[in-house]
Amino acid sequence: MNNSKKYSLEVRVWIEESDGPFLGIGKIWLLENIQKTGSITNAAKEMKMAYRQAWQLVEEMNQRAESPLVEKLLGGKGGGGAKLTKAGEKAITVFYEIEKRIKDFALKETQNLKF
Amino acid sequence: MNNSKKYSLEVRVWIEESDGPFLGIGKIWLLENIQKTGSITNAAKEMKMAYRQAWQLVEEMNQRAESPLVEKLLGGKGGGGAKLTKAGEKAITVFYEIEKRIKDFALKETQNLKF
DNA sequence: TATCAGTATTCATTTTAAAACATACTGAAA
DNA sequence: TTTCAGTATGTTTTAAAATGAATACTGATA
């Protein structure tokens, strides 16, 4: 008879670029919230993160991607805003596709862990 | 013609237990160093980590595993030491097996990422 | 041409985790 | 019964990261 502790396997996936971690689930959530709210400010509020932090993440993503993932609009009606580029939308779907395939595999591979 | 930025997929794997993350590559390295050096003190030095921290990780592992992964020896010749239990040795091999299977799969699945 | 909300940027403050320090405790062996 | 190196544990420093506050900038539109 065995102890009944439950263990499960967790997998984290991210895209690495020459200067280090480039795109993981955190930035993907940020992209999704920008898409949903139309601005970095509101996306940040949604996620309860500081605007400054969100802005820096967007800046970093845009500089390190082959082409910008977020288009920022300065001034004008409503002060401006931010929206995803085609590349930004693509990044979300590609990321989730890859993540899903790997997590499904991991789940299938690991049943009844014991430690 | 396309930009030549290189992207790669990174995967991190760890074992989760009811109270959160239980065993990842960091603790595995610690186990390996304990195995190699025969004490927590020397394992910590090897890894340039504080003894206190290493000791706490061992404590946590032992309490949350079904049975202890590290056997600690108090006092005596040389002040004591630490060695892996059978369960500790098993944990290392099982962890690496799982990790390898998943990383191999991830590598195979993802070629030519673009962002 | 004044307004307005969001972007852009700097600086001070808080939070956090990690490391460093200090000090008992343990027990085989000389 | 003293020595000794490693375990055990609390306290203090340090360093890094996140947050918060403050301020200037932008430009369509009323």
TrEMBL record, chains A, B:
It holds the Pfam family HTH_1. Residues 31-89 form the HTH lysR-type domain. It comes from the Bacteria. InterPro entries: LysR_HTH_N (IPR000847), Molybdate_resp_trans_reg (IPR051815), WH-like_DNA-bd_sf (IPR036388), WH_DNA-bd_sf (IPR036390). One of its GO terms (molecular function) is DNA-binding transcription factor activity. This is Molybdenum-binding protein.
